Amino acid sequence: MLEVAAFKERITAEAEDLVANFFPKKLLELDHFLKDPSINITELKEIHSDINLPVPDPILFSNLHDGLEAQNAKKRKLEDGSGVDIVTGTKVFAMPDGMMKSNANLVDLIEKVKPEIRTLIEKCNTVKMWVQLLIPRIEDGNNFGVSIQEETVAELRTVEGEAASYLDQISRYYITRAKLVSKIAKYPHVEDYRRTVTEIDEKEYISLKIIVSELRNQYVTLHDMILKNIEKIKRPRSSNADALY
C-alpha cells in the first residue's frame, strides 16, 4: 500500500507540474516552430525530390507488327515445342544509387514532428491518470465536480487518440509513396505515377504543418480547460461544513 500511495503522490506532482509549467512552455515552443522557415515554404517545388528512375528503351519486336501476330507466334512456339522466344522484352536496369531514396526534406521534417507527437501522448496519459485518481467514489448527488473530472478525462483521451492518428498518417504516407515508386519502377513510361509522387509529397508537407498547429492548439486547450476547473478537478465534492466557512 505504501508503494501505491507513493505512486499516486508521484503522479500528482508530475501532472500538476505538467499543467502549470510544461504545457505553457511547450505551446510556446510549438508556436515558435510554426514560424520556422522549414515549415513555411511557399513554393512547394522546393520540397520536391528527384525520382531517379530512368525510362528504359521501348520494347523491340522482331518480325512482329502487332499484338495479334505476337499471340500467334507464342501459340506456334508452344505447338512446335521450341524454347526460343523471338520477342525481346524491356531491358533490365538497376537503381542508379542502389536504392530509391525517400524525400529527404520531408524525412527531416517528420523526424522533428514525431517526437512532439509522442511527447503529447505521454504527457496526456500522465495527466489523465492524475484526474482519474482524483475521482471520488460513486455517490448520489453532489456530482457536478465529478462530471467536470469526467469531461476532462474524455478530452485528454480524445487528444491522445488524435495524436496517435497523426503517427498513423505518417506511416500511411511512407507506404503510399513506396507503392507509387514501385509502380514507377514497373511502369517507367507512365508519367502520371511520377506526378502522383510529387502530389503526395506536397500533401504530406501541408499535413505536417497542420499537425504542428494542432499540437500547439491542443496544449493551449488542455492548459486552459484544466486551469479554469482546477478547483473542481482537485475537490469535486464540497461538504456542507466547508460551505459554512
Automatic annotation (TrEMBL):
Name of the encoding gene: PSME3
Domain Proteasome activator PA28 C-terminal residue range list: 100-242
Alphabetical keyword list: Acetylation, Proteasome
Protein name per its UniProtKB record: Proteasome activator complex subunit 3
SUPFAM superfamilies on file: Proteasome activator
Gene Ontology MF, one: endopeptidase activator activity
InterPro entries, per database record: PA28_C (IPR003186), PA28_C_sf (IPR036997), PA28_N_sf (IPR036996), Proteasome_activ_PA28 (IPR009077), Proteasome_activ_PA28_N (IPR003185), Proteasome_activ_sf (IPR036252)
Record GO biological process: regulation of G1/S transition of mitotic cell cycle; regulation of proteasomal protein catabolic process
Any Gene Ontology CC annotation: cytoplasm
A Pfam match: PA28_C
Residue ranges annotated for the Proteasome activator PA28 N-terminal domain, each copy included: 3-58
Family under the similarity heading: Belongs to the PA28 family.
